[in-house]
Amino acid sequence: MRAIHRKLLRDLLHMKGQSIAIAAVIGCGIAVFIGAQTTLWSLKSARDAYYDRYRFASVFASLKRAPVSVIPRASELPGVAAVDARIVEGVTLDLPDLDEPAVGKIVSLPDRGEPALNNIHLLRGRMLEGERTGEILVEEAFALANHYGPGDSLQAVLNGRLQTLTIVGIALSPEYITTIQPGSLFPDDRRFGIFWMRKRQLEAAFDMEGAFNDLTLSLMPGANEEEVIRRLDLLLEDYGGLGANGRDHHLSHRFISDELQQLKTMSLIPPSIFLSVAAFLLNVALRRLLTLQREQIAALKAFGYSNRQIGRHYLELVGVIIVVGILIGWGLGTVMGRSMTGMYAGFYRFPSTTFQPDYRIYLGGALISLVTGLAG
To answer: Most buried residue among 16, 157, 221, 234 by CB atoms closer than 10 A?
Structure first.
């Protein structure tokens, strides 16, 4: 081992307190960056895969009532790829464990096959059977909050008539990753739920034979969403159209999109603060060390070491501190990301949410640390 390398070890041992403190600050910054970025990547991947596989709609329109003859006209609008017409109604629920009635939204499913858009993911139980009356699917969050499962029944007021409905399955939908009652700021799964029933039965319950009151559309690549919405509003104007909206105004989509944006902000601002402090501490520690070691630097030059070799020695000193900080950040960031992904998986309803540590995020964290070292 060369003398200058032994000096590197002695310097690190001499300033081990400062080195550990600076490495810890770097590690905290990288941990927050990796934790937030891996969580963001995992949630975004789960959301996008869910939307794609279960055909989440791009445009949503509610109206009073329109005949099914309007559906072909909607599908012929420029830029429209697929159309799904449904019946969506509010219901009042009589739950024995609540002092006041709960409310829900009941959505029709085709009597045969799958819906063209916003398909259902069945978690437990079975799908609805067209010939059986009074059967419903229940969204998972409401079922868990109220301890419902397949085979249980509940009472609901449909169009002024009290009916007993039998739960045959627990389901998810990309339309309701989180369920928030209109007018509320936060989810209340005890008092608000989403239900699905066969269209024929919902038509009979709400006197909607041959009609619909909710329309969802998917768009072709490159379609002008604003123009499609404008034309759709004109089409539905005579049928009590309440104004079509894109995904940006869809409550569930907007809620999770805002959360992803907050995660992105979290991955940038706090790490910047930590790493700025680390750069300052590195600068102070290195200046102090150079001041104290002027005689040693002169001795090294006398023994034939060049300015480049001496400069590289101090860069190696900084590099060791940064590498330790990177390793701390990688470890803590992985634990943090895994924990945060699991926490979000309990709040947002996806068929599958797995922690996905992308190597580019870790390399990005290491690169940021190296830039911090150079800045210091």
So the answer is: 157
Same-domain status, 46 and 89: no
Instruction: State the Cα angle at 223 between 218 and 228, rounded to 5°.
Output: 70
As beta bridge partners, residue 153 has: 166
Nearest CA to 284 out of 70, 15, 2 is that of 15
> Which segments in the chain show pLDDT lower than 70?
1-5, 7-8, 10-12, 130, 290, 292-307, 309-314, 373, 375-376
**Predicted local confidence at residue 5, as pLDDT:** 60
Say if residues 293 and 317 touch (Cβ distance below 8 Å). Answer: no
Q: Answer yes or no: do 146 and 29 share one domain.
A: no
pLDDT of residue 1: 47
For residue 250, count other CB atoms closer than 10 A to its CB.
Answer: 18
Query: Nearest to residue 334, comparing CAs of 2, 34, 24?
Result: 34
Same structural domain, 142 and 269 = no
* Total of domains in the chain: 2
Instruction: Give CA angle at 29 (25, 31), nearest 5°.
Output: 110
Residue 328: give the domain boundaries. 3-51+260-375
Contact 337, 38 (CB under 8 A): yes
Nearest to 240 by CA among 53, 29, 61: 61
Q: SS3 of 270, please?
A: helix
Strand spans (E) along the chain: 59-67, 80-86, 88-94, 102-109, 121-125, 135-139, 153-158, 161-172, 192-198, 211-219, 245-246
- Please identify, among 214, 247, 280, the residue that sits at the C-terminal boundary of a domain: 247
Closest CA to 241 of 202, 218, 214: 214
Which letter, b or e, does each residue of 223-236 get, where b requires 16 or more Cβ atoms within 10 Å of its Cβ?
bebeebbebbbebb
Given a contact cutoff of 8 angstroms between Cβ atoms, the answer to whether 139 and 193 are in contact is yes
Angstrom distance (rounded) from CA 197 to CA 181: 19
Secondary structure class of 9 (helix, strand, coil): helix
- Reduce the DSSP state of residue 223 to 3 states and report it: coil
Does a structural domain hold residue 253? no
Segment 221-241, tens digit of pLDDT:
999 999 999 999 999 999 999
Q: Which of 205, 221, 247 is the last residue of a domain?
A: 247
Residues with Cβ within 8 Å of 131's Cβ and at least 6 positions away in sequence, in order, are: none
